[in-house]
Predict the 3D structure of the following.
Amino acid sequence: MQYEADTHTHTLASGHAYNTIMEMVHAAAVKGLKALAITDHTKGVPGHEMNGAPEDIYFRNFVVIPRIIEGVHLLMGAEVNILNGGTVDLSERALRQQDIVIASIHRQCYDNEGLEENTRAMLKIVENPYVDILGHPDDSNTPMDYEQIVAKAAETGTILELNENSYRDPGLRKNCKENQMTYLALCKKWGVPVTIGSDAHFVDVVGQHEHNEAILKEADFPMELVMNTSAEKLINYLKARKARFQQS
Ligand SMILES: [Zn+2]
Ligand SMILES: [Zn+2]
């Protein structure tokens, strides 16, 4: 199986990643990828900061960046932080301009409130029209009810992510494999799309996803629901999502 896109990578701008956009694109081109998402972190809110992440304006000037470089389709976006209560830390003005938005729970910006409240927050995120992808929703440190979340994603078209970083750093997230298997089974049942993200913070990791590939096989997951198998499928899907709020 050929994977044509990586939907989750970071650059220098994130504050704890180490390459430029050009270096990341070059790595993607060398590895034969046709699409690359650059999804830098957002900065959090007072008391819940993602230190070193850029200001809102960074995410509002992507118009200056060509969307095809070295033959790779570039998707300029953000990995926004999910905040307690189910809001995110990027302005609506910026959110509207992103090619791709991942929303993720990070321990710096979100306090675990238990299964019920976490689920309530996640359901609000799924309903947020600007959020395309739920990033690494695979950590038992912030438990959530996958049945409710995936059922809601089936209504909104929100994509669930398989994150390769969850395996790269075993201390980072708890029970990631079991949780991924749980939501993959539900995504299969409800026809909800998934995406693989390398979550590269360094250039060598772009396009790397062997654990997630193995998980898809183990779950016998239908490939037509995997967004990375075709750059065209991914780009068209995201464009169709944007069209929904651009009309409103
Ligand atoms: Zn993340
Ligand atoms: Zn990330």
Observations:
- The two ends are 38 Å apart (CA to CA).
- The CA atoms of residues 41 and 79 lie 5 Å apart.
